[in-house]
Amino acid sequence: MTRLGDSAVRVADILVRDLSAGPVVEELLVEMEARRHLDLSDLDPTEQARIIESRAVDVLPSGEELAEEIGKNTPLTVKFGIDPTAADVHLGHAVPMLVLSRFQRMGHRVVLLIGDITAKIGDPSGRSSERPPLTDADIAANMASYRDQVSPFFDFERARFVHNSEWLTQIRLPELLEILSQIPVSMSLQRDDFRTRLAEGHGLAMSEFIYSVVMAIDSVKLDADVELGGADQLLNMQMGRKVMSVVGQKPQFVVSMPLIEGTDGTGRKMSKSAGNYISLAAPADDIYGKVMSIPDRLMEPYLRAWTEWTDDEIAVVVGRIADKSLHPMDLKRVLAGDVVTAIHGVKAAMAARDAFTAHFSRRTFQDIDSLPTVAFAEHADAPVARILTELLEFTPSLSAARRMAKQNGLRLVIETTDGAQDSVVLDEAQVTGTLGDLHGSAIAGRAGEGDRVFLKAGRRLARIV
Length: 465
Prior knowledge:
By secondary structure, the chain is of the alpha/beta class. It is built from 24 helices and 11 strands. Helix 5 links the parallel strand 2 and strand 3.
């Protein structure tokens, strides 16, 4: 049996036990912490490819061909490029690092490419305008911060570090022109962001237009076997395959990773600008609390993104929730502990768990200061979606409010004077209806004299008065 198989046997025994019990959860976190450093080199090529593919959006050309390549040419050279354009790092940035760690622990050569040249262009993926230029000092400071914050998810000491300035500053114009002459313009114009910016008359610099070609030259110079990146990098990485073919190299495999939804449950990806992120530099209690605030439907994708749980193990707990032998809140507490463990260790995770329990076991919504309020008499005729969007600004648009309802992210909470709570999940019809309609369908008959009514969107809360 493989080392991962041995671990899976131990975890299978834990997952059928009482996951509301602290000692059981601690045992599970200890096992998962050890798994983050587990040597995976005894897995056969098919098992390795299956693990990588299970966490990917795309594996190109295919997972089967990746397994064949691993079998024939181990160790592979696996490239992951970082353009250090910002100092703030959140859990969304850690997703590819976990997969890179697995490649590393399978025995492959991992190359971390620091894009000190491409950072000055700025990756145009998903942007509606040109990125402001960065100085060398900006790039150095950002990279130092990135390495420190992501290091819990990846062993930087065993990776090869390179800067693309090592070769991009030496590229001669004839060499670049020879490559560009064989790349159809249509490849870059496939990008929706480019077409939108051009249609709206926004700026699009030539440096941005050839960004993916410059990024592809990195793969050529490293003779990469695999390139790893976010799903928003898919077209950039496919350009790497094209340029490698143009220069006579075997095209690299492409592994694209999912972009993770933020904690607010609105469907937007995790980002600092949206305020729905979990910072890797945050204290253990803050990380634990933010994970506990997510809608229940995000637990499974979060388990897949940031933990070392296998698909079979995730299926076990999802099944237990379905048959009601495991409460969703208990699984969320396990997930929160796992995320804290990755960054701060098991001891800190268990302390955060205890602190959260002590705090919220005696705290009600009535104890929370400075909640926004919605006056029922004033807004009874207003659609709930409009209240969420325009009055409370809990959702960015009416369609986002409806989408949040479809994803079970909106709730009405009725709290009695003694702190007991009755939670009602709001459906799309209730959200598009008026606040008065909502009173008739969800509040009347449930709220008694002295009870308080709250509207909850993700982790945001308002009181209806």
